[in-house]
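Sample entry (236 residues):
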Amino acid sequence: MAELVFFSGTMDCGKSTLALQMDHNHRARGRGGVRFSCNDRAGDSTISSRLGLQTDAVEVGEGTDFWEEVVARRTGGLRVDYLICDEAQFYSPSQVEQLARVVDEMGVDVFAFGITSDFRTRLFPGSQRLIELADKVQVLQVEALCWCGRRATQNARTVNGIMVVEGDQVMVGDVAHQATDDAPVVGYETLCRRHYMRRVTAHGANLMAGGDQPLPFDMDACLWAGAGGLRQGAEA
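Predicted structure, serialized as tokens:
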């Protein structure tokens, strides 16, 4: 029986790596599949892993209809046994429903990979619909780590290393970033719940440690005196 499976986790936990590995395994057994992605950090029509793996894919846009994509390929004589759907958090709820229909009515396996919640800890619409409709939801076992060494459970957006909780839900970036004096640098960081709630990023922790100040674990790091100037510079 075909299934809709949602593989979820924070950033930097190996979702795209697993997507590429699963595609390789199925192709090695003679199955035909299609790779899809959306807003990959390496560019359009690409699935890329932070380990350096990369391959081509079909870019998912607002007008993408997965049912039509499969029908067109099968009508053209191509074999479609499964779909690899990376960055599925960016798909619309209706596109997720199309994936469910492909599974139920065409017998095509769908393996979706994505982040569950955004930098504000709110569910992405695509991820929410996947959780509601998927036959299986599997949390990846490769644990991303917070700067403190604990398991990271939250995705944080940073501007010059300072965590922010306002802004557009979708903004493509990476966990690797470096602040400069010329322009604000938007990046992402995985944090444990404790440091997410207290807004203590690796950048802020390093600044406080370098200044011989105790880490303010009992307060919001954005209220720390040293963060104010950075926030003003980031907002300018």
